[in-house]
Amino acid sequence: MRTQVRSSIRKFLVAVETDNKEIAATQLQRVTTLLDTAAGKGVYHRNTAARTKSRLTRKLNAMS
Predict the structure, then answer these.
(1) What share of the chain is helix, strand, coil (3-state, %, to 5)?
(2) How far is 3 from 22, CA to CA, in rounded Å?
(3) Measured distance CA(25)–CA(20) in Å, rounded
(4) Domain interval for residue 29
(5) What pTM value is reported for the model?
(6) Side-chain-facing half-sphere of 24: CA atoms under 13 Å
(7) Distance between CA 62 and CA 2 in Å, rounded?
(8) How far does CA 47 lie from the centroid of its chain?
(9) What is the total count of domains within the chain?
(10) What is the pLDDT along the chain (64 residues), one digit of tens a residue?
(11) Helix (H) or strand (E) holding 29
């Protein structure tokens, strides 16, 4: 589960770096779903998942 989350976050960050907002938005949805699932199973603490989602969302919103 952690591997899926980390890989998905990496793909999101690559999309942000290449300035591709559509792909980044799609990846953010995937990351959010994976983090919620992982937090529900106890893989991540719920606050850690929320903090990570918040930080990634800020990166997406900061894109021009």
Answers:
(1) 85, 0, 15
(2) 23
(3) 9
(4) 2-61
(5) 0.93
(6) 18
(7) 26
(8) 14
(9) 1
(10) 999 999 999 999 999 999 999 999 999 999 999 999 999 999 999 999 999 999 999 999 999 6
(11) helix 21-41
Where do we find the tokens 């942000």? Answer: 16
Q: Which tokens sit at 29?
A: 């949805």
Token pair listed for 4 = 């899926």
Classify residue 45 by its DSSP letter: -
Structure tokens at 15: 């999309």
| Positive or negative: CA dihedral 13, 15, 18, 22 | negative
Start-to-end CA span in the chain (Å): 32
Write out the two tokens for 62.
Answer: 């900061």
CA separation, residue 25 to residues 21, 40, 41 (Å): 6, 23, 25
